[in-house]
Each structure stands twice: as C-alpha cells, then as structure tokens.
Design goal:
The chain is α/β, with parallel strands linked by helices. The protein is built from nine helices and seven strands, in the order αααβααβαβββααβαβ.
C-alpha cells in the first residue's frame, strides 16, 4: 500500500534541497523545480521500475525517465540523490565549476541517473520516443516516462514527436506536461497560448488524462492509471496542473521565479 504521507515528507525534503542548491549557486531554476517536486518524488519512490545500485546507460530491463525541460535540474538531482544514485552531499556542488551537477543535465560528467543531455527545449520527447521504440524492438516490456514544460511545447519538434509516437503505437511511452501556465517571459497564454490541449493530443492519437501535480495522492493514482491504460496501443499524455514555486509561498504564482535564485533574506 502506498504511504502518501511518507512521499509527501520526501517531497518536502526535495523542496528544501532545491532552494538550498539554487541559493548556494546564486543561479538556477527554482520555480518549475518546486512545482514538479511531487511528481518526481512519486515517480522515483513509488512508480518507476529502476535500480539505482546498478545504473546503466541503456536502461534495459527497467523503466527510463527523460527530463526534457532540463533547466529544472535541481529537482531531478535531488530526487536522484535521495533515491540512491549518488551521495546527497554532492548536491552542494550544483552549478560549480567542474561539478557533475551542471545547470542542465549532461552525460559527459557521467552522473548516475542521467542518460541524455537535455535542456535544449523541444528535444526530449523525440529521444524518449526513440527509447520507447528500442524497447519494443528488444521485447523489453518496461516504460519510458518523459516530462516536458508547457512553454516547451511551443517548439515544433514536440509535435513531430507526438505524431511519430502515435503512428508507431508507442503504448510504452508516458508523457507528462507540467502545465503551470508560466514560462520565462510571462504567462504562456500571453506568449503563445494553446487552447484545448487535451483535444490536441487526442486528435494526434494519444490517450489523455489530467492530474493535480501538487496533490501526492492524485499523482500516484494517475501515474499508475497511465501504465494501466497503455495496453490500448496508444501513447499516454498526462496534463499535470501545477503551481510554479509550489511549497514556497513567496515564489508561488509568479513567472519571475522561473529562473532566478532566492536572496539571503528570501
């Protein structure tokens, strides 16, 4: 039985890690990281089939996660460390020269848990689709999870990958969109708005479900549901509604915290 309270406690620690890391580096992206803390915690501590002690780049025989919006690396690094991929003490090196914890996840540094360099927005879903197809060719029954930002889906490459995934019946691919309504320059509706996102993905041949990304019980339920309904030969898209900066009151609801560090007073 899922211990929701324990997962919430882990997510709370992850949020503390995020604020400390970004403050210590005097740079980084706290807003989206905080908003996605519940999702990444539920994924790595409850849903994802993975083994931190035997990490391999090919991901065979286990689930794979791709962080397409790589700028929210603080939450990714925290969850990786807290789930056992590397020592938690290494979080203090975030964005430092010669650190393995670069501003965007990279592979040259050989950081356990990171399989692809991401952060050039729009590319992660294409990579995830390739991994999902490879798993099918290898008769590997496990899943590929991908996280994108809602501002990120303004990139045209996303929609090529959406079309490709449905055409190839990649029912082992689960895409989550962090739908917080904000991006670096303002609200997404003002930058390049998109209406009826659910209908758009459905029209491309995806199964679509909605999730409250800052409600741990709903996150766990919907992630399990996504795996359950994937038998229908269609990829799954989860529209995850979150609050930018969730858990830190002065950051919540404001796009300016997309990419600035809190001060000492903060």
């Amino acid at each position: 039985m899922t211990d929701i309270k324990k997962l919430e406690q882990i997510a709370s620690q992850v949020r503390r890690d995020i604020v400390r890391m970004v403050h210590g580096a005097k740079s980084g992206h706290p807003g989206g990281s905080l908003g996605c803390a519940d999702f990444l915690t539920a994924l790595y501590f409850e849903v994802l089939k993975h083994n931190p002690s035997s990490f391999s780049m090919d991901g065979k025989g286990e689930d794979v996660f791709i962080l397409s919006n790589g700028h929210i690396s603080p939450v990714f690094y925290s969850v990786l460390a807290r789930s056992g991929y590397f020592d938690v003490k290494e979080l203090a090196s975030f964005r430092a020269l010669n650190s393995r914890l670069q501003g965007h996840p990279a592979t040259k540094e050989k950081l356990e848990g990171v399989r692809v360099a991401t952060g050039s927005l729009g590319q992660g879903l294409s990579y995830a689709a390739g991994v999902a197809l490879a798993k099918k060719l290898d008769n590997d029954p496990n899943f590929v999870f991908c996280l994108c930002g809602d501002g990120e889906i303004q990139e045209g490459q996303i929609w090529e990958a959406v079309m490709y995934s449905a055409h190839n019946k990649l029912n082992n691919l689960i895409l989550t969109i962090d739908f917080n309504g904000r991006q670096i320059d303002g609200d997404t509706k003002d930058i390049m708005g998109f209406e009826e996102l659910n209908s758009k993905f459905a029209a491309f041949g995806w199964q679509v479900i909605e999730m409250d990304g800052n409600n741990m019980a709903d996150v766990v339920e919907k992630l399990h549901q996504a795996k359950f309904i994937s038998v229908n030969n269609r990829p799954v898209c989860i529209i995850m509604k979150t609050e930018m900066g969730a858990g830190v009151d002065y950051m919540m609801g404001c796009h300016k915290w997309h990419g600035i560090a809190p001060s000492d007073d903060d």
